[in-house]
Design goal:
Elements lengths: L7 H35 L4 H23 L7
Length: 76
């Protein structure tokens, strides 16, 4: 049997992507909440609640592409 300890690189990657996923969910939740409050305040019903999460997704996917395209920094 192979009793090797799990690699720290795999754990680091797992935490990196879990952090990105958490950032996406929190950002979308905030965009929906801000869009809902702004729509009520400005009396323009479905406009900002649809537009803000869409713009947030575009920005987050751009950031995600940039972060995953470059290799992660190694801590030495």
């Amino acid at each position: 049997m192979n009793n090797k300890p799990p690699s720290s690189k795999g754990n680091r990657d797992l935490l990196r992507y879990a952090g990105m996923g958490t950032q996406i969910f929190v950002s979308l939740g905030l965009a929906v909440f801000i869009g809902l409050k702004a729509d009520k305040w400005l009396h323009i019903s479905p406009l900002l609640i649809c537009l803000l999460p869409l713009l947030t997704l575009i920005g987050l996917f751009y950031k995600l592409m940039r972060e995953t395209a470059k290799p992660p920094k190694d801590d030495k």
